[in-house]
Amino acid sequence: MSTDVTIILTAGLVATATGLIGPFLVLRRVALVGDAVSHAVLPGIVMVYLLFQTRAPLAVVVGASLFAVVCVLSIDALKATGLVKSDAAIGLVFPLLFSLGVLGITRYASGIHLDLDSTIYGEIAFAPFRTVSIGGFEIARSIVQLACVSVFNLALITLLWKEIKATTFDPDFSRTIGIRPALLSRLLLIAVAITAVIAFESVGAILVVTMIIVPAATAYLLTDRLWVMVALTVSIGWVSALAGHTGASAIDASIAGAMGLAAACGFALVLLASPRYGLLARAVQRARRRRAIASALESAAPARPVA
Using one digit for the tens of pLDDT, what is the confidence trace for 155-203? Predict the structure, then answer.
């Protein structure tokens, strides 16, 4: 498998894994959970080093995943109190965990090069060089890992589609019919944490956060149907991966950065030209309403008497 194909497949599988759950995060207004996780994993990395004196990828991922789950469950618990909103809960939890990690490094690991860039934040250009042997074939480790995560997320969304949909749009009604919104929310956030940490090691945090938020936000402007939104989110992610890789190859630039820029450009285009919710469509609708109101006022005005 060529280097270019491996990179595109890796990015596409990130788009698939994140695209299956990203729409629910956008609709639930917790889209920045992925960014929070990217900071909150630092204490897990420090803990693994202190306990086992290693920075091996598997151990680091396990430690990072543990604190990623702690992060998302803490955010959900704070939100469940009803005393703080989702954005405030995110802003409260991840600085706490990130600060804990920084203190751990400065106090116990100041003599070594231990940081997120060297341990958990990957670079997609290196994905083809980290391989595993399966059936005598060398396959990029990132493809295997992300394929497993994508299958897990697909199974989760498929098996709990009705429940997750109900709790996303009307948690109060869900509670009355026996569905537990808090449990479904935590399951979804745990899936986000696992997806983010696995993808960080393969492609880097910036691309993961981009793929969680931007394609889902773009799809949100294009449709009112949830299953269509999920399908569009995955498709937009793949298109962004292909366009970004092509652009990066043409100008010899960062591949992850180019993919993120392609996704952002797609969002900007849809924001401007979406048939129903785009800025141009809304401007046309406002102009039509003004003309209709002016016409109605003109027809309702009393005739002026003739002298």
Answer: 999 999 999 999 888 888 888 888 888 888 888 888 888 888 888 877 8
Unique residue bearing structure tokens 């697909």: 154
Sorted by sequence, the CB contacts under 8 Å of residue 128 that are 6+ apart come out as 1, 3, 6, 7, 140
Give the pLDDT mean for 213-227: 93
Whole-angstrom distance, CA of residue 217 vs CA of residue 220: 5
Asked if 17 and 239 touch (Cβ cutoff 8 Å), the reply is: no
| CA–CA distance, 39 with 32 (Å, rounded to integer) | 11
Tokens (6 digits) for 38 = 């990217």
Distance CA 114, CA 306 (A): 90
The label of the residue with tokens 């394929």 reads 147
Tally Cβ neighbours within 10 Å of residue 32.
Answer: 18
Q: Are 188 and 21 in contact (CB under 8 A)?
A: yes
Q: How many residues does the chain have?
A: 307
φ, ψ of residue 132 in degrees (nearest 5): -130, 155
Predicted pLDDT of residue 113: 55
Structure tokens at 236: 């937009």
Per-residue model confidence (pLDDT) at position 118: 46
The 10s digit of each residue's pLDDT in 105-140 is: 777 766 555 545 544 556 788 888 878 888 778 888
pTM here is 0.83
- The CATH classification number of 3-299 equals 1.10.3470.10
Dihedral over Cα of 93, 97, 99, 100: its sign: positive
For residues 60 and 118, what is the distance between their CA atoms, to the nearest angstrom?
A: 11
Dihedral sign for Cα atoms in the order 216, 220, 221, 224: positive
